[in-house]
Amino acid sequence: MSRQTETWLTPERGNYAVMVVMLFLARVLRRRVLSHLIWPISLYYLMCDGTARRGSYMYLCRVLGRKPTWPERWRHIHAYALTVLDRIFILGGKKSAPPYTVRGSEVIFAALSKGRGCILLGAHIGSFDALRAVGRSAACKIRLRVLMYRRFVGATSKVIEQLDPDYESAIIHIGEPQTMLHVAEALQQGDVVAILGDRAPDMRRYASIPVLGKEAPLPVGPLRLAAITGAPVVLFSALRCRDGSYDIRFEPFAEHIKLEGTRTEQAQTLKAWLVRYAAWLELLCRRDPFSWFNFYDFWKERS
Fold first, then answer.
1. Cα 204 → chain centroid
2. What pLDDT was estimated at residue 147?
3. Which residues sit opposite 172 in a β-bridge?
4. How far is the C-alpha of 106 from the C-alpha of 90, rounded, in Å?
5. How far apart (Å, rounded) are the C-alpha atoms in residues 112 and 63?
């Protein structure tokens, strides 16, 4: 285990006025129509947000195996902008919310049948908010709690989140004294606790794992959480398709993560699980190279 000195923890960027306008347009225009207005916005961020531009470039070089073209870099930023737009329609519960297909819902129910709740482990790829739509559906209704770090959430995100009155109540805040207690209580009640595992606010605790050909820091916290609580772990992804729908998948990962032996042996166990997680993440990135949204120096190539 090592310590990382630079992290993704920076204030969220965004234009509050633009988001207010987008919310207004969402009331009168359909999602497909509004999506055509996103191109100039994504071009603006490509040209003006140097951190996102460099992070996108370094990632695309690795996943594509070559230097990306400027249109490909624009496409990457644009893919993220479209998921932000979709948040408005997902959280607002609008009739024009993106359709989705679900694969592997039986994996969730099988995990919950153990009576220990369930930890959903995802990544910053595709749409995390699509999970909320699935949780509300009659076919796969689950009680969902979300572990999130909220210190640097910007005004634009808060405007969107206010569209869903239940959004804040479902969040368990990372880094607070009662965080572990709230997680344990949720799992004991048979809830699903979701967390993204490709970055974390506490970067003192991570393992260096090969991702797309070079070692990168992946947090051990989500897996330690599973080991402490005894909850089964299920992988979750929601990739945006070309037609604007979402392909949502649940995949089995671990029935029970056990940490036994010395501290070194436990670290080796965690690293082995993280290697499996990284392999899953790589498959998603290669399946849709433009849907991973870690727009920062993930591999620490500039340090």
1. 20
2. 87
3. 147
4. 23
5. 35
Among 170-174, 228-232, 259-263, the minimum mean pLDDT is found in 170-174
Q: Are 98 and 90 in contact (CB under 8 A)?
A: yes
Tokens of 273: 């699980």
List, in order, residues 6 or more apart from 248 with CB less than 8 Å away.
100, 101, 102, 103, 130, 131, 134, 236, 237, 238
Token code pair at residue 246: 């979402």
Order across the sheet with 233-240: list the strands.
100-103, 246-254, 233-240, 118-122, 192-196, 144-148, 171-173
Can you give the pLDDT at residue 11? 47
- pLDDT confidence band for 66 (50 / 70 / 90): very high
Residue 13: partners with Cβ closer than 8 Å, 6 or more residues away: 45, 49, 52, 154
> Mean pLDDT for the chain?
85
DSSP β-bridge partners for residue 233:
119, 254
**What is the model's pTM?**
0.87
Provide the token pair at 229: 């609580």
